[in-house]
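User: These chains co-purify. Model them together.
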Amino acid sequence: MSSRITLDGVGQTFWVRGDEDKQLREFVAIENLDLDVAAGEFLTVVGPSGCGKSTVLDLIAGLAEPTSGELRIDGKPITGPGLDRSVVFQQYTLLPWRTAAGNVEFALEAKGGLSKKERAAGAREYLELVGLSEFANRYPHELSGGMKQRVAIARSLSYQPEVLLMDEPFGALDAQTRERLQEELVGIWKRTGTTVVFITHDIEEAVFLGQRVAVMSARPGGIKAIINVDLDRDAAAETDVRATREFAAYRHRIWSLLREQHAPAARTEELVHA
Amino acid sequence: MPSLIAEKTEARPNPRQEEAARAKGVSPGRRRAVSVARGVAGILTLALIWELAPTYGLVDAYFIPPLHVVLEEWWQMATDGELAKHVGASLVRSAIGFGLAIVVAIPVGAAIAWYRPVREFSTPVLEVFRNTAALAILPVFTLILGIGEASKISIVLYACFFPILLATISGVATVDPQLLRSAKVLGLSPVATFRKVVFPAAVPTIFTGIRISGAAAILVLIAAEMIGATAGLGFLINYAQFNFLIPKMYAAIITTALLGVAVNYGLVALERRFSRWRPA
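Assistant: Joint model of the two components:
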């Protein structure tokens, strides 16, 4: 059910054209990045915007190829997308002409080997998992942002991938909806045992969700530190974990790590502009 | 009377409140029956002006006869089968040309849009053709295909082809990259991606082209029939005018207008049928 992801000295560069000098040059998005994700683990990746978080996710998903280094899943190199991994993007990527159920069935059609009836049953099962049974026949424009993202999660889980990759999936939601979905996601993760790599720029979200939090440094992106988070999340429904002293301590530690790298970066920017 | 500003900025429940109340916001002053009645009143006003202006000598009643004279003539033509013959001839020509345009332009447009080099190669050429008025090259069609059905159907095909083709190219080429990324994550083949993602996403844009073409089909055909034909609404209008059968001419013009309205409404209804998933 679960899988082990290894990133070994991974680098990614893009071709860019300068805004001011109009010169073609290479832009190093991430450099020499090492990361191990254990089977069944919930890992969150937090970092300043533009540090290459999404690039890391694209590489694991197989949507892009690294310029250097190697990515392996269960020891096998990643050569492209595969149904062993699934991705939930920040933007709602539902097909607007299909209902909620139709969107889950879309993934099952891609998986193949299922009859129409089995696909419909699968869609029903996973919409129930995310609490949207009543809304199965609604079109995306008839759903709220939170509901759309639940459908996207149901779609991603429906073909039972070993790894769930999430790219700031709750970034566009309001605070209350976000917290509720975070709690539900932890519940789903516990039930399915899927390995989750969750990208966010929200420190509290990273601490609340992750068993481990990978803190990224910016330009070029790399892993700056990995923090083990030991919180009792079972009690999440009853007590407010986010209000505990332990939670605050984790939050502060990561905040300090991010702040540390921000300060010198700000100074160099000043120099550049001077 | 509420102005546009008052109408568009009227206080309404927001979507969340609508969701909570399981209801949709309405403006009390707006009822469908009233809106329809106003539209009917507009048409009746036009009819009244047409009827009264010649009667009271505001325009020459010989060149613009009162509406009731035209309608009597129309009814006469409708009952003795004359109208059916000409409408039939025009409809068959425009339907064949329009149908062929749809069948050919959509696959060709999709193929052009799929590969960027092909797109970049053909766009300027297509722009030249699109901006060449169909009627300007009618003589070319007549020269090559004669004055029979083939040249008329071809001119309709030509006029309908480019709007649909260009709409298809733009619809396919502007597909949301995020949708393509999710198809890629699912490992969908290019054919399946086209069928399940790109084409459905392009349908609304393609329909815009189809609607433009529907209007063009009738417009161009009427003009072509005026130049060389022995049946059809364009021929009828021209023939009536040559022979000073003025009411007949207006009856044919009204029929053309009705046909245009019917085609447009038909296409709008079809479009709605295919895009029920879109927000109203």
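The longest helix of chain B spans residues 190-227.
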